[in-house]
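Q: Predict the bound structure with LM6UYM6L.
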Amino acid sequence: MRLDRFVSLMKERGFDGALISPGTNLYYLTGLHIHEAGERPTVLVVSSDGNYRLLAPSLYENVVRNFPATFWRDGENPYEKLAWILAEFKLSSGKLLVEDTMRADWLINIFRVGNRGFEFYPLSSVIRELRMRKDEKEIDYMKHAAKVVDRVFEELLSWDLLGMRESELALKIELAVRELSDGISFEPIVASGENAANPHHAPGNRHLRKGDLVILDYGAKWKGYCSDITRTIALGKPNERLVEIYETVKEAQEKAYRTVREGVKAKDVDAAARGVISAAGYGKYFTHRTGHGLGLDVHEEPYIGPDSEVILENGMTFTIEPGIYVPGLGGVRIEDDVAVIDGRGKRLTRAERELITL
Ligand SMILES: CSCC[C@H](N)C(=O)N1CCC[C@H]1C(=O)O
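A: Predicted complex:
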């Protein structure tokens, strides 16, 4: 059981307990999916003795079944109940791991009511070691999520894109992804023309025109696991500089992919992509890391950046997505999801990478 492995690791690293709020870590460890806890304090308390109990608002009584839980009702003080659980588990001081994304107001109240000399540390510092290596079932789910985005790419090539607003295309992509999967892994990015110079452009009212390069970046979820793909397509003949940029990004992406091996550092994969782009004179226009880990979260460890010392291992899954973004002109990004399998990188997303001109 994942929770047992987590407790062993926590103990090995000298931690006394953990406080885990709803999100992908809670799901990973327990299978509990707490949707929209919002402002209502909801915390899994785990002790290094192997005790665990979820504190949750009473509206989850019918969801949290067969799992040790204490519920609080409106009008009760949840932090008092949390203090009781800590006392029951004999957690009164020591080193506590806390969910990185826990709401600040919960944390402040935990400090006030429950803190009797704890030192707090980010949960990610320990759980990353478990989550970074996916098992076969997790990789199968990711393969399925990757197939969905490949299919949607094929499908969208048949749509009448000229004249469509970015926001309309983003919505159509979202609907197509939802049709084939459990949902989107993030809001699609559709960035056309000069808007493509912004890697995280929010799709807006711009109409797609002849001569545009259009960055399409979207993802699906399957059984909780994410895919994330980017392709850049041309509408009509683009200018020659953009074609040169496209070919440079494609080469950088391929070189980085070929660098993926068990035992190689993540930063070497980044360096491979960055080297190609710098040699072509576009180094200063590659303004982000080469990739990020992918799994239950769309951004997780291992990050594929210039300073990432993580040594790649079988079961690791991440994106490779170099890009070049020239203000006033536009941009190109090509992204695949990759898993390390049998010592080598294997693309999970397989959509066409040659420049498609519609
Ligand atoms: C979760 S929104 C961004 C999704 C996108 N695929 C992505 O991860 N990136 C786009 C630019 C680089 C990269 C990133 O690290 O944010």
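A: The chain has two domains: 2-130, 133-347.
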